[in-house]
Amino acid sequence: MTFPGSLDDRDALRAVRLAGAEPVPLWHGEKWLSDVVAVVLPGGFSYGDYLRAGAIARFSPAMQSVIDGAKNGMPVLGICNGFQVLCEAHLLPGALIRNDHRKFVCRDQRLRIENAETAWTNQYEAGQEIVVPLKNGEGGYVADPATLDALEADGRVVARYLGDNPNGSYRAIAGITNEAGNVVGLMPHPEHAVEELTGPSTDGLAFFTSVLQKLVGIPA
Amino acid sequence: MARVVVDVVMKPEILDPQGQAILGALGRLGIEGVRGVRQGKHFELDVDESVSEETLHRLADTLLANPVIEDFSIHR
């Protein structure tokens, strides 16, 4: 899905292709999602982060279709700005605020996959450590303590930062999922770690092969 | 037509890094005695008289503020 101000939509398309699926470019202004069976909301600065990151993209015509699809089980992955859009759309709890140290962070980041049963992480092992790029200015994941406790208790923390906390996210949360496990929001960028030439690893590819496994049972 | 003001601030329990940066700058200005700064947003809406309180509350609650992290107040 491309919004005005998306940056990583082409990398997301490429990652989907490298995983063995057919990528379909979607435009935020089109309500009809074509015949796609899963949607990636990419990183970037939709609407220039005006108002709040993701707050205006959330009301685009395509997002209503994404929200309806997500509630009916369609796999949706929101990366970075896409994670912010999912939180603004209330498909995921909590919110993302400015990094606590107030600087943009851009680095290769170690993560631990905490939940390897979602539509987007079933090709990982629970507890597996991966390295993918992280780049954000407003990546601090926040929610009230009751919500955080519920996420932890239900195993809905998908990935956690290892090492020093890069952005002040509560409980070092890097990604979460909804109750059904079809919607995942992630601040780091697996789509930038899908081939040796351009990424620090190929650790991110399994997010995209996971959804293939989920939808059509193609083994990775 | 009426002028409606909506003020939005981060909830007290949410860290406000921008407010902290401003607080740091006040120290460098040589100003003492300011213990805390919370940065918010101020919206001025020109609305028809027919727009109800409920509508104003809905637009503040769904778009102008994110109630997960922000509180808002409406002044008509």
Summarize it:
Chain A is of the alpha+beta class and 220 residues long.
Structure description:
The complex is a heterodimer of chains A (220) and B (76). Chain A is an alpha+beta fold and 220 residues long. Helices cover 23% and strands 20% of the residues of chain A. Chain A has one domain: Class I glutamine amidotransferase (GATase) domain (Rossmann fold). Chain A has five helices and nine strands; from the N terminus they run H-E-H-E-H-E-E-E-E-H-E-E-E-H. In chain A, the strands form two sheets. A seven-stranded mixed β-sheet of chain A has the order 1-2-9-8-7-4-5, covered by helices on one side. A two-stranded antiparallel sheet of chain A has the order 3-6. The two termini of chain A are 24 Å apart. With 76 residues, chain B is an alpha+beta fold. In chain B, strands 2-1-3 form a three-stranded antiparallel β-sheet, with helices on one face. At the A-B interface, loops of A face helix 1 of B.
Largest interface, by Cβ-Cβ below 8 angstroms: which chains and how many residues each?
A-B, 20 and 13 residues
Q: How many domain modules of chain A?
A: 1
Largest sheet of chain A: 7 strands, mixed
Q: From the 3D coordinates, which CATH architecture of chain A would you assign?
A: 3-Layer(aba) Sandwich
The named CATH superfamily of chain B: Phosphoribosylformylglycinamidine synthase subunit PurS
Counting DSSP H or I runs of 4 or more residues, the number of helices of chain A is 5
The CATH topology of chain A comes to: Rossmann fold
Strand content of chain B: 25-35%
- What's the arrangement of strands in the largest beta sheet of chain B? 2-1-3
C-alpha termini separation of chain A: 24 Å
Which runs of chain A of at least 5 residues are low in confidence (pLDDT < 50)?
none
- Number of separate helices of chain B: 2
CATH class of chain B: Alpha Beta
**Gyration radius of chain B, to the nearest Å?**
16 Å
CATH topology of chain B: Mth169, Chain: A
The rough form of chain A would be described as globular
Inertia-based shape of chain B: elongated
